[in-house]
Amino acid sequence: MIRNTAKKIYIALIFIFLYAPIATLIVLSFNASRTRAKWGGFTLKWYGELFQNEEIMQALFNTLFIALVASVVATIIGTIACISIMNLKRRSRTIVMGITNIPMLNADIVTGISLMLLFISMGLRFGMGTILLSHITFCIPYVILSVMPRMKQLNPHTYEAALDLGAGPVYGFFKVVFPDILPGVLSGFLMAFTMSLDDFIITHFTKGAGVDTLSTKIYTEVKKGIKPEMYALSTIIFVTVLVLLFLVNKAPSEKNKK
Amino acid sequence: MNKKKLLGTPYFIWSAIFIVVPLCMVFYYGLTDKSGAFTLENIISITTAEHSKALWLALVLSLISTLICLLLAYPLAMILCNMNVNQHSFILLIFILPMWMNFLLRTLAWQTLLEKTGVINSMLGFLHLPTLNIINTPYAIVLGMVYNFLPFMVLPIYNSLAKIDGNVINAAKDLGANGLQVFTKITLPLTIPGIISGITMVFIPALTTFVISKLLGGSKVLLIGNVVEEEFTQASNWHLGSGLSIVLMLFIIVNMVISAIFDKDGEGSVL
After folding, report:
1. pTM of the model
2. What CATH number labels B49-262?
3. pLDDT of B162-171, one tens digit each?
4. What domains can be seen in chain A, in order of their start residue?
5. Would you call B241 and A194 a contact, using CB atoms and an 8 Å cutoff?
C-alpha cells in the first residue's frame, strides 16, 4: 500500500516537473499584462490579435510548410532507399546504414554548421530552399530506421509470387509489399514531421535573413521579450495535439472492446 | 535484382552530398587557416583558457544532467512498465506530448518559474521557506538540460524493460533470488542497451547545447556550444568554429564506440 502510494507520488512529481512550464505558458497566454513578470488580469485578447499578427502567421505557415514538404519528400526517398538497401550486399549495407546514422548521432550544432558550410561553398542563397534541403536531410534517417524493421519482417516470397502471377514490379510493390510496411512508413513520416516542426538548431544555421520559422522567430524575440500572441499560438497547438491524441488513443481501445 | 539496387540511387547521392561532403567540409575548414594552408591551430585553440573552461563546464554540466536523468528515469520506467498494459501507449505519449510545445518556449517558461519573484519563489515565500536563487547560474542550466532531455532517457529504458520476458524474472524468484538480486542479476543487465542509448541521447545534446545555456544561464555562463555558435554567427570565424566542432565530434565518436560495444544489435534504439 505504502509502496503504491510512493510510486504514485513519484509519477505525480515527474509529471508536475514536465508539465509545469507548459501550464505556465498556458496561463501566460491569458495574461493581460504584456510582460511575463506580472499578472495583469484575465484576457482573451492575445488570441484575437494572434490572427492579425502577420509575422507570426507567416512563421507558422513556414513552419508547417517546411515540416510537411520535408517529411513527405523524406518519406518517399527513405522508403524507396529501404528497398534498395535490403538488396545490398552485407558490406555495402553496413556502410550505407552507418552514413544514415550520422545525422541522428551527430550533434545538431555540428550538422547545422556542416550544412551551412556546404551551402556557402555551393553558392546557394540562404532561405526557404536551404532550410528545406537540410530538413529533408535530417528527416530521412528517421524514415529509414522505422521502415527498415518492417522490411526485414517481410516474406520475400509473397512479392515473387505476385510477379509470377503476372503483376508488374510497381503494381506488385503497391499491392503486396506496401500494405505490410505501411505502419512503418506512417510512423517514420510522423517522426520526421515532429522533428522538423520542433527543430531550432539546424534551421538557425541554414536559414537566411527574412525567412523565419516559429522557433527562430521566438529565438530572436527572446531579447526584446516574447510577444504574448506567441503563448496563445503555442497553447492552441498544444491543445489541438492533445485532443487529437485523445481521439487516436480512444479509437483502437473501443475496437478492442467489441 | 540490379534494378532494385538502382532505386536507392537518389538517396545514396543525397546522403553523399548532404551528409558526407558537409562533414568533410567541417574537417577542411577546421584544419586550414584563412589562406587555405594546413594548420592545427584551430583545434589546439581548445587549450586556451577561455575555450577549455567552456568545454570543461559543458562536460561537467552534461555529465551531471545525464546522471540525474538516469537516476530519475530508471525508477520511473520501472513503475510505468508495471502498470496496466492497456495504458502503455498513452503513458508514453505523456512524455512525447511536451515536445509539441516549442522547446524554446518551454525552456523560457522556466525563467518565469525560477525568477527571484517568480512562481516557485512566491510559493516558497508563502510557506516561509528560504527562496531559491538559481536563475542565471549553472544550476538552472542543469535543470533545463534534465527537463529537456529526460524523455530521451525514459523511452529507451522503458523499451528495454518492456522486452524482458516475465518468465525469466519468475524463474529467478523460484530459484530463491530476492528482490535486490533479481534487479542486479536480471533486470539491470538486460536493460544495459537501453541505458547506454539513453545516456547517448542525453549526453550528446546536453554537451553541445547553446540554447539552454543562453536562455537559463544569462550571459554569464558560456558553454562550448555557445563558443562554436558565436564563431559562426557573430565572429564569422568559420575556421576556428570548425576546429572546435572537430573537438566536439571526438566526444561524439568516443560515445558512439562505447555504445557500439555495449549495444551490438541496436536493441536500445528508441524506434
Report:
1. 0.87
2. 1.10.3720.10
3. 888 889 888 9
4. 55-226 (1.10.3720.10)
5. no
